[in-house]
């Protein structure tokens, strides 16, 4: 279709509409229709003409185009072509004037102008059209003209033109993903629309909505509940309705209203998703009270244009579908803090501590806190410390929480009760967790000199029910222990100042079977041993824990325990400075290999676990001390089936 033909077609539609205006007005005058009814009829028809004029590129038969300079001043009570031009401009910019471009500056025009001023940084945004607003609109027009020129020069401009004689084929309205909307919520999703055109492209110009209660609510006037109803596409607001003014509604008794200026293009056979949002007022009556807070929103009519500018008002119930429903709940309803173990929580390990000085900045637990159903401000947190072998006061010099890089020291002294210490932290509102987001919390400990506690003392940090109960947080309302869930229990860490360590990441294993019928299992366990603050010696000997006495070396267990023949061999990369004893020099790491063969009395599936490594400061391996590799589950082989 050529531009000339397209313009002629649209002009003819506008001409017919104008003719309809005079055809309908004349009989009304002849019938001596009341002045109020006549004015409403004229206003409705002029609104339709204005909408058709918009489809003609903003040209008006009664005044300037929507992007021509409009003389100031204009205010409440003004009339004429300049008012019509201003109204057309506001509608073209997405503002809502339910009565359309009537040429009369009333409350609807004032509200639309104030909204435009607010969005375009014109102050004061009071709905008065003066020199400042005139200059702002002229500047905006210059920007639009420049954009239009750029689009005209583009080789791809044809892609923006509508094609074919399209019609609305699909229109579905569904509930939003969350049907509970809190008081004071801004642009909360209350409905989701799906639209699709067939047989060509269409442009949706406006939608008429109905917003109503289920009839049981004490508060059932939408203007006393909602501030705005907005329309969103791909995360961008395309139109907004001022829901606070009763006069803005098409029919306040039914809660119907119109959102114009959508300019929503639906390409043929391409589904478009539209979200309806609502900003809710504070302190809504009946919010969160049983079933007395049900609201529904439906679409009563959709006006769209095809490529020829032919308008269609779709109001078929079958076509538009059923309403979406939602509840208005009290501010803070459903808010929750959820505690979980962090992805980078440190696994059980040996922590090398200093014998003569403090060992600072060791993370022993990492956990996350997630906020649900609202932004939540942290006031107080608590963490439990479990120390075995000595008291917390002997082991811990200081403990702190690190949240997003900010440090919070424990409040007061660390008093131990029954082997456990609860450390409390005053966050004092310095950390706010956004809705559906989470923060990472690290529990960081400074350890005292090892001279104050035994070598091999262990420590573990956790957040469980008792610590959740001590949490203090604020959302839209204060949260209590019933609003907290989850837990975070860390691994046990061993404090070593002198002796050996057997790291988890230095352990590997393999399994195999021997014999013609796989009647013997062979298990190979390879592990590393590092000496701390001295040379240490391990006997070349291995025994199962089924033995009644221990003679040094390493101990292992066959699981499950059963009758059978067990043999074992211990080898190492360490030198044998003393025959039959392996040496691990200070600061060095040696690899040990334990090979176990097992011939069970009965067939079954078995594995081998490294239980203890006995080390000694004596070159002959005497007076050995036990080292227990932890966690036990990381120092065992896989199960192997053995036949009989």
The count of helical stretches stands at: 8
Structural class of the helix and strand makeup? alpha+beta
How many structural domains in the coordinates? Answer: 4
CATH topology of the largest domain: Immunoglobulin-like
| Parts with pLDDT < 50 across at least 5 consecutive residues | 1-35, 49-65, 149-159
Overall mean pLDDT score? 82
The largest pleated sheet is described as:
14 strands, mixed
Proportion in β-strands: 35-45%
Q: End-to-end span in angstroms?
A: 88 Å
> Tell me, what is the CATH class of the largest domain?
Mainly Beta
CATH-scheme architecture of the largest domain: Sandwich
Name of the CATH superfamily of the largest domain: Immunoglobulins
Strand runs, count: 38
The value of Rg in angstroms is: 39 Å
Q: Helical residue percent?
A: 10-25%
Based on Cα principal axes, name the global outline. elongated
């Amino acid at each position: 279709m050529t531009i000339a033909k397209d313009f002629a077609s649209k002009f003819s539609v506008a001409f017919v509409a104008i003719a309809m205006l005079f055809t309908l007005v004349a009989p009304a005058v002849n019938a001596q229709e009341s002045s109020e009814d006549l004015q409403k009829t004229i206003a409705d028809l002029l609104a339709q003409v204005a909408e058709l004029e918009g489809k003609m590129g903003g040209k008006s038969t009664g005044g300037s185009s929507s992007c021509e300079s409009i003389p100031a001043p204009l205010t409440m009570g003004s009339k004429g072509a300049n008012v019509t031009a201003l109204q057309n401009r506001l509608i073209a910019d997405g503002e809502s004037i339910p009565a359309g471009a009537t040429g009369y500056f009333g409350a609807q025009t004032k509200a639309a102008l104030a909204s435009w001023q607010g969005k375009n940084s014109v102050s004061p945004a009071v709905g008065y059209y003066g020199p400042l607003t005139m200059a702002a609109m002229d500047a905006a027009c210059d920007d639009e003209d420049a954009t239009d020129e750029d689009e005209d020069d583009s080789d791809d401009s044809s892609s923006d033109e509508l094609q074919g004689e399209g019609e609305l084929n699909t229109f579905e309205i569904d509930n939003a993903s969350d049907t509970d909307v809190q008081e004071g919520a801004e642009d909360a999703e209350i409905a989701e629309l799906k639209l699709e055109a067939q047989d060509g492209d269409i442009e949706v110009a406006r939608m008429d909505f109905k917003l109503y209660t289920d009839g049981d609510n004490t508060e059932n006037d939408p203007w006393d509940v909602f501030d705005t109803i907005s329309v969103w596409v791909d995360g961008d607001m395309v139109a907004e309705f001022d829901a606070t003014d009763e006069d803005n509604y098409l029919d306040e008794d039914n809660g119907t209203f119109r959102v114009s200026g959508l300019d929503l293009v639906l390409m043929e056979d391409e589904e478009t998703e539209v979200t309806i949002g609502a900003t809710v007022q504070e302190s809504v009556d009946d919010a969160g009270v049983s079933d007395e807070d049900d609201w529904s929103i439906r679409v009563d009519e959709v006006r769209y244009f095809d490529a020829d500018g032919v308008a269609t008002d779709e109001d078929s119930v079958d076509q538009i579908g059923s309403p979406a429903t939602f509840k208005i709940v009290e501010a803070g309803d459903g808010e929750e803090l959820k505690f979980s173990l962090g992805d980078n929580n440190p696994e059980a390990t040996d922590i090398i501590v200093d014998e003569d000085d403090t060992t600072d900045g060791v993370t022993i637990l990492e956990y996350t806190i997630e906020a649900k159903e609202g932004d939540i401000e942290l006031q107080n947190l608590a963490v439990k410390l479990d120390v075995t072998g000595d008291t917390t006061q002997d082991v811990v010099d200081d403990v702190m929480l690190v949240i997003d890089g900010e440090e919070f020291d424990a409040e007061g002294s660390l008093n131990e009760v029954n082997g456990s210490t609860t450390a409390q932290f005053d966050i004092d509102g310095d950390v706010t967790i956004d809705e559906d987001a989470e923060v990472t919390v690290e529990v960081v400990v400074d350890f005292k000199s090892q001279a104050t506690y035994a070598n091999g003392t262990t420590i573990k940090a956790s957040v469980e029910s008792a610590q959740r109960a001590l949490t203090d947080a604020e959302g839209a309302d204060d949260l209590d222990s019933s609003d907290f869930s989850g837990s975070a229990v860390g691994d046990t860490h061993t404090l070593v100042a002198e002796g050996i360590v057997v790291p988890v990441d230095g352990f590997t294993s393999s399994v195999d079977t021997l014999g013609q019928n796989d009647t013997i299992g062979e298990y190979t366990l390879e592990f590393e041993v590092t000496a701390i603050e001295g040379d240490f010696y391990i006997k070349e000997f291995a025994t199962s824990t089924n033995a009644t006495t221990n003679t040094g070396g390493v101990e292992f267990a066959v699981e499950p325990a059963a009758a059978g023949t067990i043999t074992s061999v211990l080898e190492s990369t360490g030198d044998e400075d003393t025959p039959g004893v392996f040496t691990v020099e200070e600061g060095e790491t040696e690899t040990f290999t334990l090979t176990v063969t097992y011939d069970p009395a009965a067939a079954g599936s078995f594995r081998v676990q490294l239980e203890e490594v006995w080390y000694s400061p004596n070159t002959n391996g005497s007076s050995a001390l036990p080292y227990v590799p932890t966690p036990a589950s990381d120092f065992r082989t896989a199960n192997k089936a053995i036949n009989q």
